[in-house]
Sequence to fold (373 residues):
Amino acid sequence: MTAALLTPTPGAALHGAPGIRARFATARASGLRARDAAHSLGLSEGAVVAAHAGEHAEPLKVVPLRCDWLALLQALEFCGPLMALTRNNGVVHEKTGVYANVSGSATMGIALGHDIDLRLFFSHWHAGFAVSEAAANAGQPPAQSLQFFDASGLAVHKVFVREATDRAAFDAVVAQFAQPGAGYVFTAPAPRTAPQPDATIDAPGLRAAWAAMQDTHEFFGLLRRFGAERQQSLRLVEGEFAHRTSRDAVTLLLDEAAMEGLPIMVFVGSAGCIQIHTGPVRHIKPMDTPGAQWINVLDEGFNLHLRSDLVAHAWVVQKPTADGVVTSVEVFDTDGELMAMFFGARKPGQAELQGWRDLVARLPGRREVEHAA
Fold:
């Protein structure tokens, strides 16, 4: 099995799966999280996980899964509560609940459970594995999970066993979908496509189409139609449908939502999954670690970990709909990638919460942001 390097640097290539497994075990023992431990070897996380398939003596055990992703996720309903995890480079979104009401096709899917709320893009799901890692303390059960990766070895979604999970049912799902000979291979990620110059975009047409939206889901088609990158589109409608706010807007809105008991929606996406929390947030905790600053939501059933030091731009965005204007706060990292989106809690057919509009209106505006800079 071939493992793709993140970067072709001298010394990064390890001598086959046994070398990868040994060095990964050392990195994990030093305290590194799995993703960081893989990157410390110069490898993608998917490549390192794949190297642990088969018989060996290391604490991480892996079984490749056949790529029937929709049926696999549907089978998880019988396992009871599980923890769903979706992340990108700057945010981790963790939600505990039952994988209920999962439907879709081979390319797209949706989960509409009470707690597990997902939008699934299976065209980006390249490989899946059942992963078991021995606990550090003897006598404790191993940490069990399902982990799914894109073609470059970047995680698109993970599912973790919790204390209340029916482990026998979970093991049965693994046995049903196991494909030990899958032989997944990862390739280097494609370079990011640069946005078109602003001058090449039909800005008046974009603004007119934006004003005519009847549903927030039309936004993705609008970007494709005009060939605009997401944050580029915000610049082109700035002052009318979007304005800049401060880089610490997430901390401000989470703190105020918690104090007011205001239910919100938190969207975090990878290439293959958007994961959504709807409800109140209560325990907001900033945290500094070596080389990183975080703002965290640490609630029962919902955890959010956002690298506040990676936020380069924050926007307040308004989209017209048949139910009235819908307002979001969107934050982007230093590479221009969307980190997270925040909305007031609402369902289709409902107007936006006035409390959410009032909260967003209190966030610093462009003049205050420019003055602070």
